[in-house]
Structures are given as structure tokens and as C-alpha cells.
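User: My collaborator sent over this chain with a note saying "see what the structure looks like." That's all I know about it. Can you take a look?
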Amino acid sequence: MARAKWLISVQQAQDDDDEDIPSTSQRPRTQRRASPAEEDDVDATQVTQTDNDSFQQMVKSLVRLAISSEYTRHPIRRADITTKVLSTQGRQFKNVFDAAQLALRQTFGMEMVELPAKEKVTMIQKRQAQKSGSGAASGASKSWILRSTLPEKFRIPEILPPPKVPTQELEAAYVGLYSFVVGVIMLGGGRLPEAKLERYLKRTNADQSTPVDSKDKLLARMEKEGYIQRAREMNAGEETVEYLVGPRGKMEIGEAGTAGFVKMVYGENFDEDAGKRLERSMKMVAANRALIEGGKKDGEDGESTRKARGRPRKEAADQAEEESSEGE
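Assistant: Without extra context I'll predict from the sequence alone. Here is the result:
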């Protein structure tokens, strides 16, 4: 009985305490309202975070575009970057490009290098370049390919094997074929008549078919992917066709790659005489390149350009013929 009275008194005391405590609606507001300046800071932080997320997404998209384009040997074009990566953020190109370049170097051991523009070799191409104002341009193409940044000692088939699509054997054969074609064009002074290229292909039993495809389809693929460039021009009613080294061929193989390819083919037989002949061929490439670059500078006077070019080109062709005769 005493315990029951004690519990009743405790309950009454708690009820009295509850009556003294104001309700939630009656309590004074102790939370301070955020000032307009503080609200602006919060909004700015959220916008900055959103912009950073959007920027990082564009960087990732450019890295994916670069790798997928290189896998199919397609150039990474500025127009594709704008359309597929930047969308309405075109002014962010440089920042996104630099960040993607850094990611490619640090993560994949590759970097984007700009391709040179295709050479304007026919008179029609030169006139069109003069009309469009591109003749005086620096040779930039606004297209890039991926190039390995690994040290030379790591650029071996065990570390950088050919792609597995369609098969590794076919891709290895294709690499060998375009290296050979680019090499003979380079050794011919950087440009080679179609008849002479046909002769070289016949000597290697590649004039009809190859392990990759037919000869015509093989050359068409090399031209499409930028390893070689086919120039056609009408001269006195007759069509002349020449092959030049294409933009990808210059960047992926180039003069150094051609020299290495020749030394590998010669093996132990690469003596001093072979070295001198190789050096003469590389000088011819440099001379022809200087002629083309000189033509871009004085291209306004087409007649004087043709007269200035006539003799050096003939001398280069004669020397190329002499080199090929020695090789046979």
C-alpha cells in the first residue's frame, strides 16, 4: 500500500514537470537563419562540384574516344571531339585535351600526337589550297593519333603485341606489309611511281594477293588509314599516279622506322656500303620535303614554282632509279 502511494506521488511530480516544459510550438527559435552570403557560398560550392564532375566526365570520354579510335586506326579528329565529348562546352577544349593527355601518359603509357596535313602534290590540289588560304598554313591537320611513350627497350612484341582482331597473325602480317610499302616509298625519296611500286610488290609475291587481302584492297586500306597517299594527275592527256607516305605513315614509321626496318632486313649483312646507300636515300627524303615546304611558301606564283621544281625532282627521280638498280 505504501509502495502504491509512492508510485502515485512520483507520477504526479512528472506530470507537473511536463506542464512546466513548453511545447515544441511554444519554444523560442534558437537556430540562426543562414545569411544570404552564406547561402551564396553553399550554392557556389554545389555549382563548382557539378562543374568539376562534368569536366572529369569529359576527360574520361576523350580518353575513351582516343583509345577506341586508335584501335580501329581512325584519326582522332577535332570535329569528333567537339561533337562526342565537349558538346556545348567547346571553350573547354584545351583544358580537357591537356587533362586527357596527362591521363593517357600516366595510366596507359601513350600520348596524342598531331598528324601532319596531307601533301598537296598535284596542281589542282595546290590551286585549291591557295584559294582556301590553307597553303600558308603550318601543316596542322587538327587530327591526332596515339603514340607509345614507353622507353625504346620496352617497345617489343612481347609488351606491345599486334591487336587480336581479327587475329594476331593477320594483324602482324598487315604491320609487316605496310611497313614494307612505306619503307620502299621512303627509300625512293618520299614518293614513288605506281609502276615502280608494282614492281617491288611483284618481287615479294604480293602483286596479286597477300596474307591480308588482295593487293588492290590492301593498298586501299593503307590509303584509308593514312599510311600512304595516292596522287593522280593528268599530264598531257595521260594520267600519272604516284604514291607518297601518308600522315600516319610519317608519324608511326617515319625515317627512323624505315632505317630500322632496313637494318633489320639486312641483319648481319648491313655493312658500311649499305649504310651509305641508306643515308643517301634519307637525304633524298629530306630534299623532297624541303621542296614541298618551299612550294607552300611561294605557292602564289605557280609558274615560277613549277620551273623551280623541275630539275631537282628529276634529279631525285634519277637517283632513286639508280638506288633501286643497285638493290636489284
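A starting point for your reply to your collaborator: Residues 161-327 form a domain with the Arc Repressor Mutant, subunit A fold (CATH 1.10.10.1210).
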